[in-house]
Amino acid sequence: MNFLRKLGNVAMGFIALTVSVLLQFILYIPAYLYYVTYHNIQSLTGNADLLTLISNMISTMFNMNLIVYATVIWGICGIFVFYLWYRRVSANTPKISFKRDLSVYTIFGIILISLGSQLFVNYICNILSTVFVDEFTRFANLFDTSSLSPIATYIMLFYGIFIAPVHEEILFRGVIMHYMRKGCPFILANILQAALFGLLHMNIVQGTYAFIIGLLLGYIFKISKNLTSTIIIHVIFNIIGSFPILKVLPENNISLNLTVSFIGVIILILGYVIYNYYIKERNLRLSFSESDK
Fold first, then answer.
1. In sequence order, what are the residues at sequence separation of 6 or more whose Cβ sits closer than 8 angstroms to the Cβ of residue 183?
2. What predicted TM-score, i.e. pTM, was given to this entire model?
3. Average pLDDT, stretch 25-53?
4. What percent of the chain has pLDDT over 90?
């Protein structure tokens, strides 16, 4: 019976991801209808023949501007839905307010963790791009912004930096991690939530580094016991990743890319040591205060 209960909790983690994907498709429909109505109005009401009308409607489904707008709507609604879900399922789970962790040391540690992980992931991907050329070419084409309107470009940037981290942390390190930890040991739970995090990105390049970052964020959540820390790390990670300066190294210079990746690992470890030291000090203070009651 206990095994079935644990298996049910793991299944609920997969169901949470399924709900997120279904929510994306459901919200895409009104966004699509709105876009067709207001941006293809001439084709819909003019003298266009049926084949032209159908062709326009099909091509609109893959319009990058529409996809950006629909994704933003999904992200905002996802924050609302999964925040309520997380509050409900974790009501009896001990959590620590980020305010207790707010100090120069934790902020400095978080910045170093974000910078180090971005340097490592970015320049390792630079090296891998010389081996898996086709996959990285498809990835670059997937994020070609040349067809986006200026406002859609800025909206996509805002989504990637702020909305996506909040949505994804509540979903993966919040709801899904909650169920996974109730169903299996932390190591396996962390691997599962990180794997689902990678799967959501639906391409091998993003999926690979999302899995790596998901493992890191899952562990940070475990020791910090609050989602605010992982959200801030995720936001800073995405901000740093949006800087063109990270693209300056030539991809075929493997030794240089390895060197910068190694520097990234050192920075990451240093940030973790600083952050973890303060968290241990916090836990010690909390244990003393509890014993005094």
1. 6, 7, 8, 9, 10, 13, 189
2. 0.87
3. 69
4. 48
Distances (CA, A) of 69 to 7, 141, 142, 182: 37, 19, 16, 36
Residue for token pair 């279904």: 22
Return the amino acid letter for 95.
K
Place of tokens 């959590």: 95
Q: Report residue 50's pLDDT band, with 50, 70 and 90 as the boundaries.
A: low
The domain segmentation of the chain, as residue ranges, is 73-291
The alpha carbon dihedral of 154, 23, 222, 123 has a sign of: negative
Please state, in angstroms and rounded to a whole number, the distance separating the CA atoms of residues 41 and 248: 44
Distances (CA, A) of 225 to 63, 84, 121, 206, 282: 41, 18, 25, 26, 12
Give the Cα separation of 75 and 167 in Å (integer): 6
> Does residue 55 register a pLDDT over 80?
no
Decide if 283 contacts 290 (C-beta within 8 A): no
Find out whether 79 and 166 touch, Cβ atoms under 8 Å.
yes
